[in-house]
Automatic annotation (TrEMBL):
Residues 28-54 have a biased composition (Acidic residues). Residues 439-540 form the Extracellular endo-alpha-(1->5)-L-arabinanase C-terminal domain. This is Arabinan endo-1,5-alpha-L-arabinosidase. Pathway: Glycan metabolism; L-arabinan degradation. It comes from Autumnicola patrickiae. Residues 1-27 form the signal peptide.
C-alpha cells in the first residue's frame, strides 16, 4: 500500500530518531542557527520595516528540542506538528494532526492531537481525539481477510499508524475524517516479501470542538485491491502496488451544488474523488472497485505506473474565481516534500496546471508553491508540504498550513530532520487566479501603506525551482532608486502602491508587510511572492 515501503522506511527513521532523542535537549553552542529562544524586545530598522515599528511578533524558537518532552507540551505552541488540518469554531481555530512528535513524546497520550488558537500564531495543546484505536478497525480488517481468496487468518494484534485527519464543518456538525494504517505485512513478517495491510478512513463527529467529545461513525472507505497485482513482492525494490487507491490522506469538500465529496489517496494509482451521502458522510455502497472513486490526479503513466510520488490532496473552491483548486504533496516526506497546485471547474477534473497540462492524465503539477528553501541566518526548511488550506470567513483571508522540518545534520541538534514545526502562511492570489504561498510565516503584522521608496534596498530572493531533496538558497537582489535591479536579477522594476504590486522585468509580485523569522531579534520587514514563466514561485524578503 502507499508508503508500504516508503512509509515503513520513514516509520523506521522516526523510531530510530525516538531511540536517540527522547531525552535530547538543544545544544547552546550552535552558532550557525540564529533563533529567538526568549522574548527580547524587537528592534526593527525604521528604514526597512513597515509601521508600527514597535510591533511585537512571535519569538518562540524553531529548534524546540529542549522543550520536546510531553511534560512541556504547554510550551510547544506549533512544535511537533505534522499533517495539520484546521477549522474554526467560534473564536478559535482548531488544528488536528497525524500522531507524530520529536522523540515520539506523544506516545501513550491518545491519537490525533489537537491544539487551538485565536490568532493563528499562539497555540495551546488540547489533548487528543481518541484515547485508543477504534475497535471497528480490527474487526473490519479481519472480516476482509476472511473473505480473501484464499482466506487469511486474522491478525490478532494489528500494528497501527494514525495519520492525516481532515476536519470540516457540515451544517452544525464537525466531521473529522481520519486515517488508520495497519502496518503488518499481509502475510508473514517480512515487508520485502509482502505488501503491508490495508489502510482505513474513518469518520468521527461532534457539534462542539471545544468539548473534544467525539462520536465515532466507523469506516468510510478502505484501500481496495483491483486484481492487477498480487500482495506478494519479489523483493524490497518491487514497487508495483497491490492496492489501487490507498485509503489515507482524506480531505472533504461540499460543492456549490451541494454535493459532498471525499478526496483521498497516496502513491498507489493516484488521487481519488469519492462522492458521499450528505447525511452520513459515507458512500452509499462499496461493492466494486469503481465504488471507491475515480482518479482525479496521478503522476507519470497513470495507466501503468502503480507507484506514483504524490499524496496529501486538499481541495478548496474559490467562489471569486469559480475554480476548484487541488493542492498536492509531491515526493518523499522527510526532505523532498514540495507542494503543487492545479485547478478545474469540475470537482472530478480534469485538473490542469498553469501550463495547461492535465494532472488527471499524469502531467507534472504546476505551479510549485512550496519547496525546501533557506533564507540567510537559518538552516532552512525541508519536508514542507501536506497542507491544510482554509479560509477565515470573518476576514476572507485564505491560509496555507503544513509542517516543515529542519534539514538533516543541523549543528547542535540530534536528529534535526525529526524537528517538525507547524507553519501557517497567508495565501496571495494572482490576477489570473492562482494561489501563492507567502515567503514568511503568518505573524499578524498590521497592514500599513507600502511606498515605492520602501522597495529600495537589498532583498534576498529565492526561486522555488524543483530539485529533489535539494534546498533552494537565497541570493541578493538590489532595487535601486533609479528603478534598476542588480545582483542575481538584473533589469528594471516598478511599484504600484495602490495594489502593492512589484513588477520586476514584466513579472508581477505581490508585496506584503511580514515578519522576518530568520532575523535576530525578529522584526517586521517586507516580502514579495510571484510566479516565473515556468510556474515556479519567486520569493523575496527585504533585509537592508
Amino acid at each position: 500500500m502507499k508508503k508500504s515501503k516508503l512509509y515503513s522506511k520513514f516509520l523506521i527513521i522516526f523510531l530510530l530518531f525516538s531511540i536517540g532523542t527522547v531525552s535530547i535537549s538543544c545544544s547552546e553552542d550552535d552558532e550557525d542557527f540564529t533563533d529567538d529562544s526568549v522574548d527580547p524586545e524587537p528592534e526593527p530598522d525604521p528604514g526597512t520595516d513597515p509601521e508600527p515599528d514597535d510591533f511585537a511578533g512571535p519569538t518562540y524558537p524553531d529548534d524546540y528540542t529542549n522543550i520536546a518532552s510531553w511534560e512541556q507540551r504547554s510550551q510547544w505552541n506549533l512544535a511537533n506538528v505534522h499533517d495539520p488540518t484546521v477549522e474554526k469554531d467560534g473564536e478559535y481555530f482548531y488544528m488536528y494532526q497525524t500522531d507524530a512528535s520529536y522523540g515520539n513524546a506523544h506516545e501513550g497520550h491518545g491519537h490525533y492531537p489537537v491544539r487551538r488558537s485565536t490568532d493563528l500564531i499562539n497555540w495551546e495543546h488540547r489533548g487528543a481525539v481518541f484515547s485508543e484505536a477504534p475497535s471497528w478497525i480490527k474487526d473490519s480488517l479481519n472480516n476482509m481477510r476472511a473473505r480473501m481468496d484464499p482466506p487469511l487468518d486474522p491478525i490478532e494484534n494489528p500494528n497501527y499508524g494514525f495519520w492525516a485527519p481532515h476536519i470540516s464543518k457540515v451544517g452544525n456538525t464537525y466531521r473529522l475524517y481520519y486515517s488508520v494504517v495497519v502496518t503488518n505485512p499481509i502475510v508473514g513478517s517480512d515487508a520485502d516479501a509482502a505488501w503491508t495491510e490495508r489502510a482505513f478512513i474513518g469518520l468521527a463527529e461532534t457539534n462542539d470542538l471545544a468539548s473534544n467529545n467525539w462520536t465515532d461513525k466507523g469506516m468510510v472507505v478502505s484501500s481496495v485491491a483491483d486484481g492487477v497485482e498480487t500482495y506478494l513482492r519479489e523483493n524490497g525494490n518491487d514497487w508495483s502496488g497491490y492496492f489501487k487507491f490507498n485509503a489515507i490522506d482524506p480531505s472533504f469538500i461540499v460543492t456549490p451544488e451541494g454535493e459532498h465529496w471525499l478526496i483521498y489517496g497516496s502513491w498507489h494509482s493516484g488521487i481519488a474523488a469519492l462522492q458521499v451521502n450528505p447525511e452520513t458522510g459515507k458512500p452509499d455502497r462499496l461493492e466494486t472497485v469503481e465504488d471507491h472513486g475515480v482518479r482525479i490526479a496521478g503522476r507519470g503513466n497513470v495507466n501503468a505506473n502503480r507507484w506514483q510520488g504524490l499524496e496529501g490532496p486538499e481541495i478548496i473552491y474559490n467562489e471569486e474565481t469559480g475554480y476548484y483548486y487541488l493542492f498536492l504533496a509531491y515526493d518523499e516526506l522527510s526532505v523532498a516534500y514540495n507542494t503543487r497546485v492545479v485547478r478545474s471547474q469540475n470537482i472530478t477534473g480534469p485538473y490542469v496546471g498553469i501550463d495547461g497540462s492535465s494532472v488527471t492524465e499524469g502531467a507534472e503539477a504546476l505551479p510549485i508553491v512550496t519547496h525546501p528553501y533557506a533564507f540567510n541566518n537559518h538552516p532552512g526548511w525541508v519536508g514542507f508540504s501536506h497542507p491544510s488550506v482554509f479560509q477565515d470567513e470573518d476576514t476572507g483571508q485564505w491560509f496555507y498550513s503544513s509542517q516543515a522540518r529542519l534539514p538533516e545534520g543541523v549543528q547542535g541538534i540530534n536528529a534535526s530532520n525529526a524537528v517538525m514545526m507547524g507553519h501557517v502562511r497567508k495565501i496571495e492570489w494572482t490576477e489570473d487566479g492562482w494561489p501563492l504561498v507567502s515567503p514568511e510565516r503568518y505573524a499578524g503584522v498590521p497592514e500599513s501603506p507600502i511606498s515605492e521608496e520602501a522597495i529600495v534596498g537589498t532583498w534576498e530572493h529565492i526561486t522555488l525551482n524543483y530539485q529533489y531533496r535539494e534546498i533552494q538558497e537565497s541570493t541578493n537582489v538590489v532595487f535601486h532608486e533609479d528603478n534598476t535591479v542588480s545582483g542575481s536579477i538584473t533589469g528594471s522594476w516598478s511599484f504600484d502602491s495602490d495594489s502593492n504590486t512589484l513588477t520586476i522585468n514584466d513579472k508581477e509580485h505581490i508585496v506584503s508587510n511580514s515578519w522576518d523569522w530568520e532575523a535576530s531579534p525578529r522584526h517586521t520587514t517586507l516580502t514579495y511572492v510571484g510566479l516565473n514563466s515556468s510556474g515556479r514561485s519567486a520569493w523575496g524578503k527585504k533585509v537592508e
